[in-house]
Amino acid sequence: MSDQYCILRDGELIAASPLEWARWFETSAERLVARSEVGDAEITTLCMGMMPPGALFKTVIYGGRFHGQTECYSTLEAAMFGHERLFGKIESEQS
Predict the structure, then answer these.
(1) Of 25, 50, 61, 80, which alpha carbon lies 20 to 30 A from 9's?
(2) pTM over 0.85
(3) For residues 67-74, average pLDDT
(4) In what order do the strands lie in the sheet with 41-47?
């Protein structure tokens, strides 16, 4: 995908104009790819919809020992895998 902006619709990335992207970014629930809580931490993975290399998706940890850790991904599949990996990391630290 060579366009600068894209939106996630039904699990697929679709090229978008800057205006379409801005509306989607402000209002779409599809931006939230995954959200998990483990112990005192929350892991959130979002579709950012912008094309800087490797940063279409972002996972952030809020709370707990790893608060503020952020990882970026270029595909939905990588983002889902990364989200689950971070969940497992936090979960294993707490057991």
Answers:
(1) 61
(2) yes
(3) 95
(4) 32-38, 41-47, 57-62, 70-73
